[in-house]
Fold:
Amino acid sequence: MTMKLYHISSSRSVRPLWVLEELGLDYDLETLDLKFGSSGGENYKKIHPYNKVPALTDGDMTMYESVAIMQYIMGKYGHGHLSPKTDSLEYGPYLQWLHFGESSLAPNIVTLMYQLYLFKEEQRSEDIKSHAKREISKYLKMLEDYLGDKDYILESGFSAADISVGYSLLLLRLAQAKDLMTPRLDKYWKTITDRPSWEKISKL
Structure:
């Protein structure tokens, strides 16, 4: 049975979608309209109780969480692609950066999005907005320092860590805060998105 990914354009489902395309796997894609708290309606609530994406079904298995879905797809169908071997010196840093995109960068970017335009004006806080920007800048510097002059996070090449971090950089652009990006990170963004897989999924 073919895997099925539930997707909303520019949402966290971009991450597993990018993995599926990079690996050249067969999958079904169901694209939902964005409706905060009710995307997909009552039918989708049977898949995800809070109507959020992504969700993945594979036979009788259903799961959520973008990075977990990435790891599931790669572990079951990836045949060693997009991740280093567990006995590699790169494996620890790979896991760190795989989760960095969602656990460190994304929460602060989402906070900034709410403070810039998702909250009503009377709900916004300059202090919270400023704090989010400082945190984002701190983590972006951490990423930039680690990249150095490498094209990708790992010396060995493009990996799922780049996909995870790359989505957070997309989120930063959606937050209308790409001014926080440095020229080095702009170059990195262009490198990781100059791929046939990105060309396809960016239109979905």
Summary: The two ends are 22 Å apart (CA to CA). DSSP finds eight helices and four strands in the chain. The mean pLDDT is 96.
